[in-house]
Amino acid sequence: RRATAGKQLDIIAAALGAHPTATSRQAILEGLRDGLAGLGQRTTAAPANWDAVETALLAGTDATLRNLALQVGQLFGNAKAAEAQLAVLADKAAPVEHRREVLLGFARDSYAPALPAVLALLDEPTLRRDAIRALASFDDATVPAALLERYPSLAGPDKTETILTLAARPAGARRLFAALEAQKIPKSDISAFAARQLQRVVGPAFVDFWGPMVQPAADKDADIAKFKRLLTDGVLAKANPSHGRALFERTCSACHMLYGAGGIVGPDLTGSNRANLDYILAQIINPSEEIQEAYKLVTINTQDGRVLAGNVVGEDDQKVTLRLVGQETVVAKSAILSREISPVSMMPEGLLKQLSTDDVRDLVAYLKTTKQVPLP
User: Fold this and answer.
1) In degrees to the nearest 10, what's the CA dihedral of 231, 236, 240, 241?
2) Considering the domain 298-341 in this protein, what is its CATH number?
3) How many CA atoms lie within 13 A of 209 on its CB side?
4) How far is 224 from 234, CA to CA, in rounded Å?
5) 185, burial (CB in 10 Å: exposed 0-12, middle 13-18, buried 19+)
6) 3-state secondary structure 108-120
7) 5: three-class secondary structure by DSSP
């Protein structure tokens, strides 16, 4: 298989010289980069003709092609290419998109020498959120400490990403759980998806703190009946849908899209039967009753201790592409320790029990709207 792959890479590298237009070269380089993604720069030998191709690309005037050549060179284990990429990442005058691509490449390969530069990006607003996501790839004690130190000053979406990054590894998840227990981070900051992730990583201690993730059927039926009695037309008429939207963005939008905004790990709620209170309550209180095939939760444990949970959106002999909250991640099959499909929804049960009566009213009122409302 390695010999076959090597021949294919030789052909691809030769094709770069045979295609004179920048557009075609860019397409080939992007395909080569994406094909190598997740395999690690020390696992794939460069084709014999790569040095000549790389030299020609780096000598050119097209900044996009030069950047792509460095990205591919790094994936082939070229130390000089990695050093050049680090310089781009640290250069505040470089185009933001180029720096973002470099950041994603280092995260994809968990390239340890890049960690100080990635941590520095936490103080750059334009790349802060990308850096928070990227830090999930680095198994280093400085990561949870840096994220928790900055947490109080972060904006809402950046807090959401920080929680997901911390929950992705046991060390970070334990630090996050300790902050929750000490009430340094409000329990209300934990989204439904993050709660499920913390349950997997922290274990029973988190369930004791949060509450049961799976309830007996009789309890779920009783909860549906209770909230139907509570959420009368008169009660909902007094609701604040704008506050409900804020609750949705904090609790649900990491996975669900509504009115064109939100995540795509779970179903888009825009066209669902949201006018029906029975439907809304059933979906929230008993989310595992019926799970569409495309949204079944797959959990991957990697050799380096990371826990990834999401939907599989692509797979071949060498890698799996997993759609996580906010991004897609490519994982080499050689890096996978275990993989399982969950029989339950990624959305934990008992979500409404984490909210006050007024919050439940406002959230349901927002879900029943027919058009977007402003945030408070």
Assistant:
1) 90
2) 2.30.30.100
3) 22
4) 18
5) buried
6) HCCCHHHHHHHHH
7) helix
How far apart (Å, rounded) are the C-alpha atoms in residues 240 and 248? Answer: 12
Domain ranges of the chain: 2-122, 139-210, 217-287+347-367, 298-341
- Residue 130's Cβ-count burial label (10 Å; 0-12, 13-18, 19+) is buried
* Structure token digits, residue 267: 């179903």
CB contact burial 64-101 (16+ within 10 A = b; e otherwise): bbbbbbbbbbbbbbbeebbebbbebbeeeeeeeebbbb
Max Cα-Cα span within the chain: 74
Burial, 186: exposed, middle or buried (Cβ in 10 Å; 0-12, 13-18, 19+)? exposed
Q: So what's the architecture of 217-287+347-367 in CATH?
A: Orthogonal Bundle (1.10)
Report yes or no: 162 and 147 within 8 Å, Cβ to Cβ. yes
In terms of Cα–Cα distance, which of 263, 250, 23, 29 is closest to 158? 250
Q: Specify whether the CB–CB gap between 334 and 44 falls below 8 A.
A: no
Q: Report the amino acid identity of residue 269.
A: L
Give the mean pLDDT per block of 10 residues along the chain (376 residues).
52 69 85 70 70 85 86 82 91 93 87 95 96 94 97 91 93 96 92 84 90 79 94 96 94 88 85 88 86 82 86 86 79 88 78 90 96 94
Helix (H, G, I), strand (E, B) or coil at 212: coil
Cα(344)–Cα(353) distance, integer angstroms = 19
Domain 217-287+347-367 shares a fold with domain 298-341: no
- β-strands 298-302, 336-341 pairing: antiparallel
Handedness of CA 145, 151, 153, 158 (dihedral sign): positive
Distance CA 71, CA 105 (A): 7
Exposed / middle / buried, residue 61 (Cβ in 10 Å: 0-12, 13-18, 19+): exposed
Instruction: Return the half-sphere exposure (C-beta side, CA atoms, 13 A cut-off) of residue 375.
Output: 7
- Strand pairing report for 257-258 and 261-262: antiparallel
Amino acid identity, residue 367? L
Per DSSP, which regions of 19-173 are E strands? none
